[in-house]
């Protein structure tokens, strides 16, 4: 019964967050809500220039000298909707569905990554239990640029002994290291010309791919739709199809494997049969490579209205050549951790705006050395292809500590509470822990969270029976630190 009450209260907190649109870069409203909610608990609250929120909870009586524990989650979410769903991520709330086993959303991503982390911390901060001083930190822009974690003032970390990040997706796993990353945008000004009036036009593309997180799913042989579209268009050039590229776009987030990509082409009607034949051949070859995984993929060819302009052939060919050369997937697997990618890349977004084409890519590595290597490779590739490579700040790798005392405490408590072991894991996804470890190298850091499935997709769902175990785990970790670290006063 008590666990039902805990779940009810946490889901109520989550439901309030779901009402507030919060895509990356647009967190002011949710940040203000978090400030108000925390102040209602009587906490001391700060909001920095990035809209990060920092809250201080005094220690329970007799535990003021216990080492400081920081609890942390991010407030932004990846906003993705199913095809045909009308959804404005800047204005529309998330519509929650609860079937008793899973929490999901109506046609969109759920935002449990990381709204459930915030809701869990809210619940914990509202409770009276044995604990030392607590600091809660809620950051912005984790999903795109990690602006919040990167910009967080070091003063909020220097007195911290333990950090519990609540942004992992498996309730029986404690994460102790995560990959660093670099984001790059390959950009090029493009020229346009007039389409041939005697030509036809068509909308071609690939859709209904699985997509998924470019860290946790990158080694599962899922197809990147942008890469597949590039291969189709490259085949048209190789087969000497008389056509021009009018529009091209794909993907929705740098850290999501592109599940769809489309192009509008203007072509010689005499070549229509050959174009369709090439599409059929590519679909067959796609099945040979991805058929066991990508069961719902659909290749499309639809006649469409003539576009007002087409991309000059030289610029279109340069773009397609770049996309064909760029790797999207795993480069190398770890030599020390089983089934862990060492280095990967994902083409996340492709589009044309204001006479400029942009190819957005996110590379990840477990080592800072490989991040440096891949940046050098991209610089050289951009020079050879006639594109400009624009880099975002590099996220450092979090090497972690296999002998982490905090991870040991978490695993011990989890086994006591759930009667099964907790796994220690290095992950290929990126976490804000990377920045915290870089700023406070002696902090003991872990990441935990309930089972959150298919994040960064409209199929995202939260497994409800894993939420309360995470709350109880966090609470007992904090209590045990208090019990072990209390000094006589």
Word description of this protein:
The protein is an alpha+beta fold and 489 residues long. The chain is built from eleven helices and 23 strands. It has helices at 2-18, 28-40, 112-125, 147-151, 225-238, 272-290, 313-325, 368-385, 405-418, 433-439, 467-485, and strands at 44-47, 53-57, 68-74, 96-98, 102-105, 134-139, 160-165, 173-178, 180-189, 192-193, 200-207, 243-250, 261-267, 298-303, 310-311, 329-333, 341-353, 356-365, 388-391, 423-427, 444-447, 452-453, 461-463. The strands form six sheets. Strands 1-2-6-3-7-21 form a six-stranded mixed beta sheet, sandwiched between helices. The protein has a five-stranded antiparallel beta sheet with strand order 16-17-18-9-19, covered by helices on one side. It has a four-stranded antiparallel beta sheet with strand order 4-5-23-22, with no helix packed on it. β1 and β2 (53-57) form a beta hairpin. α1 packs across α3 (112-125). It is elongated. The protein starts with a helix and ends with a helix. The mean pLDDT is 95.
Summarize this entry quickly:
It contains eleven helices and 23 strands. The chain has helices spanning 2-18, 28-40, 112-125, 147-151, 225-238, 272-290, 313-325, 368-385, 405-418, 433-439, 467-485; strands spanning 44-47, 53-57, 68-74, 96-98, 102-105, 134-139, 160-165, 173-178, 180-189, 192-193, 200-207, 243-250, 261-267, 298-303, 310-311, 329-333, 341-353, 356-365, 388-391, 423-427, 444-447, 452-453, 461-463.
């Amino acid at each position: 019964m008590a666990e039902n009450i805990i779940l009810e209260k946490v889901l109520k907190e989550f439901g309030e967050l779901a009402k507030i649109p919060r895509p990356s870069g647009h967190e002011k409203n949710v940040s203000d809500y978090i400030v108000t909610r925390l102040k209602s608990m009587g906490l001391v609250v700060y909001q920095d220039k990035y809209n990060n929120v920092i809250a201080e909870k005094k220690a329970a009586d007799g535990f003021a000298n216990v080492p400081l524990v920081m609890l942390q989650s991010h407030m932004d979410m990846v906003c993705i909707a199913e095809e045909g769903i009308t959804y404005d991520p800047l204005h529309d709330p998330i519509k929650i569905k609860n079937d008793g086993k899973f929490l999901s959303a109506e046609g969109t991503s759920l935002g449990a990554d990381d709204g459930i982390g915030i809701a869990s911390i809210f619940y914990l901060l509202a409770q009276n239990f044995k604990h030392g001083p607590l600091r809660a930190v809620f950051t912005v822009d984790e999903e795109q640029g990690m602006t919040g974690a990167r910009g967080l003032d070091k003063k909020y970390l220097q007195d911290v002994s333990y950090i519990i990040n609540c942004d992992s997706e498996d309730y029986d796993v404690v994460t102790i290291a995560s990959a660093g990353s670099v984001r790059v945008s390959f950009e090029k000004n493009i020229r346009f010309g007039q389409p041939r009036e005697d030509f036809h036009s068509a909308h071609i593309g690939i859709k209904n791919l699985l997509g998924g997180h470019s860290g946790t799913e990158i080694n599962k042989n899922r197809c990147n739709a942008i890469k597949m579209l590039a291969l189709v268009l490259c085949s048209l050039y190789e087969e000497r199809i008389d056509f021009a590229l009018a529009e091209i776009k794909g993907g929705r987030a740098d850290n999501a494997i592109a599940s769809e990509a489309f192009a509008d082409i203007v072509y010689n009607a005499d070549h229509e049969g050959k174009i369709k034949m090439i599409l059929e051949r590519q679909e067959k070859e796609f099945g040979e490579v991805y058929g066991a995984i990508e069961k719902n993929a659909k290749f499309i060819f639809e006649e469409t209205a003539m576009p007002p302009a087409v991309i000059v052939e030289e610029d279109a060919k340069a773009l397609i050549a770049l996309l064909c050369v760029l790797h999207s997937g795993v480069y190398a697997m770890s030599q020390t951790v089983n089934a862990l990618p060492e280095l990967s890349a994902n083409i996340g977004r492709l589009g044309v705006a204001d006479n400029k084409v942009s190819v957005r890519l996110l590379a990840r590595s477990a080592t800072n050395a490989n991040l440096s290597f891949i940046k050098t490779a991209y610089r050289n590739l951009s020079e050879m292809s006639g594109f400009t490579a624009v880099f975002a700040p590099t996220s450092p790798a979090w090497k972690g500590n296999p002998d982490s005392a905090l991870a040991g405490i978490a695993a011990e408590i989890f086994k006591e509470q759930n009667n099964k072991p907790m796994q220690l894991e290095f992950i290929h996804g990126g976490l804000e822990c990377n920045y915290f470890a870089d700023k406070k190298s002696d902090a003991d850091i872990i990441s935990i969270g309930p089972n959150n499935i298919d994040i960064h997709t409209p199929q995202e769902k939260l497994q409800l029976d894993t939420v309360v175990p995470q709350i109880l785990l966090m609470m007992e970790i904090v209590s045990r630190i208090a019990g072990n670290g209390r000094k006589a006063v």
